[in-house]
Predict the 3D structure of the following.
Amino acid sequence: MKIAIAGGTGLVGSKVVAKVRAAGHEPVVIARSHGTNLITGEGLLEALRDCRAMIDVSNVVTTRKKVSIEFFSRATATLLRAARQADVDHLVTLSIVGCDAVDLGYYFGKRVSSRRGMCRGRSCAPRSSLSSRNPCWRRSRRSR
């Protein structure tokens, strides 16, 4: 099965690509370095052709609320629109445990991504949201 991974060259994305490949599936990396752009949509429809699922582990490196909200709002909307047009069967998004309760700039964008990604309307593919723990929380616990 072809599975698209948005952010497939990043820290998490590269691991997801390896796991998808190890499971015998064909990963399709969605990243600027692979000719796709999450903001403009450039190359997305071509990349999503024949993909049955898409995993969104895209990221922006910022702590600023405005930058985070702008990136995740636009990227999520673009991905959802392209996935709908390409008839992707299932969407999976990576979130962060507790991002709804912590008012940090980056988390505001993740909240927008999670809310915007919820299925609305009649032509939306099934969607899952997986939450991970922030690696910073693990480090701070170990150092106590």
